[in-house]
Protein: Aspartate--tRNA ligase, mitochondrial
Amino acid sequence: MFLVLRDCHGLVQVIIPQDESAASVKKILCEAPLESVVRISGAVISRPPGQENPKMPTGEIEIKVKTAELLNSCKKLPFEIKDFVKKTEALRLQYRYLDLRSVQMQYNLRLRSQMVMKMREYLCNLHGFVDVETPTLFKRTPGGAREFLVPSREPGKFYSLPQSPQQFKQLLMVGGLDRYFQVARCYRDEGSRPDRQPEFTQIDIEMSFVDQTGIQSLIEGLLQYSWPSDRDPVVIPFPSMTFAEALATYGTDKPDTRFGMKIIDISDVFRNTKSEFLQDALRKPQGTVKAMCVREGAKYLKRKDIESIRKCATDHFNQEVLPVFLKANSNWNSPAAKFIVEEQRLELTRIMETREEDMVLLTAGEHKKACSLLGKLRLECAHLLEGRGVVLRDPTCFSFLWVVDFPLFLPKEGNPRELESAHHPFTAPHPSDGHLLYTAPEKVRSQHYDLVLNGNEIGGGSIRIHDAELQGYILSTLLKEDATLLSHLLQALDYGAPPHGGIALGLDRLMCLVTGAPSIRDVIAFPKSFQGRDLMSNVPDSVPSEELKPYHIQVSWPTDSEAEKRKESFTPSRKLRVLSSVLHQC
Structure:
């Protein structure tokens, strides 16, 4: 008789001798339920010839057991601890301590630990960085994501959980710690988003007397040094692309460069077109005609796929997209065929480099909107083609890209006449655009840079503003923010702040891509659910009113009419939020 034991290092086969002396051992081990904890002792022996298991690292040996002890029996499991057994994510999160026993979760968390250790070694031992812990209780930061509030015992006074250590790491530069890093816990109250967690971890880095190239070289070396040995090595330097180029070519600021389907401007082809649709678009400011070639789209995509693509364009962008097919007989089978003359057809074929059975998606409109539309459809087409067996996005390929020269400001949502920071208000303007701050701030580029991996933003940073006067002008005059909230930072910048810059890598998302996990929750030991709840401990939870008194807080429950009104505007998955308490100062 044999059974398999598992510990943190793997599996080993145990043989129970078939004699009377092993009767007690046999009884203990055979009656112990699956996943029980046992201690055994015995002799390590070679397996009989022909019984080796090459699929197991310990497949050439087994343990001939002498004694056995049941340390703790396991009750009936809610699910089997096997990776191939299908389990709902809610059940996995409810019994997370059991889910952590799976081979995949063990691998993910151990690889995460190994990579973080290598990063510490690279930064601290090889490059002289100082690991500094920054406070978790802080104050509200103007702009950026919504922050979690923490009540204090002073009436009407709250702490905020920092969405990043941004201000602290800049203050450390003022304090003379010229190379800072931290494995930082960050908090953002962003609601239900599948690719986000309310609490997350980032590799936070800041340096004095550095430029953009210096930061990028450091990060490239960091990833190359810490990269898992069982993956293809990281090749540096990473390619770079401006924000404008990324938008014009891929329709997004985080392009997946593992496959083609680039966007091409074909406005010149249709300057003299008789199509009112195209002429109206070209007459408008920033008007353009864009196209994208889907290789073998006519071969693999079906009519329902084409309708889905067109519906996606209408639903998300309120814009028309025209599919164009080039068949072997050179006829156009498309709504666009009626306004494309032979000369335009030949020119379009030349520019797009189309072949038989390719499909061209054509749209017209304002530059940014048209590019964004085709950028979304590019990913949608890749998904559809991969569903038909076409390999476009190799999961074993890691395609890094720097995106640079972002705009410093964007029109504020809801009030386009006002500006808001494209990233955060501490980002320095591009050296070539400094004069535009006072005449045309909407045209100013920033010294911000994002690191993209396979279409996912895994890091972002910038060269910071180290001049108090400039920082105050941007906050008060351009962004119309209350600069008193940052008086401590503005004051610090006046005391000889060195030029500095930094970056933060999203550790959770990076590990998700490295391990090939379907969700960032699969690389975090105890994550929150899609709705931001901990299903294992059932939090957030209610608090007795007696415990709220020292914080001068009471709960105001919504009336039935308010609850019903909210219920109409909430999706079923968010209805629980209707009952969330609203905090009011007494």
Observations:
- Confidence is low (pLDDT under 50) at residues 328-332, 569-586.
- The first strand starts at residue 2 and ends at 7.
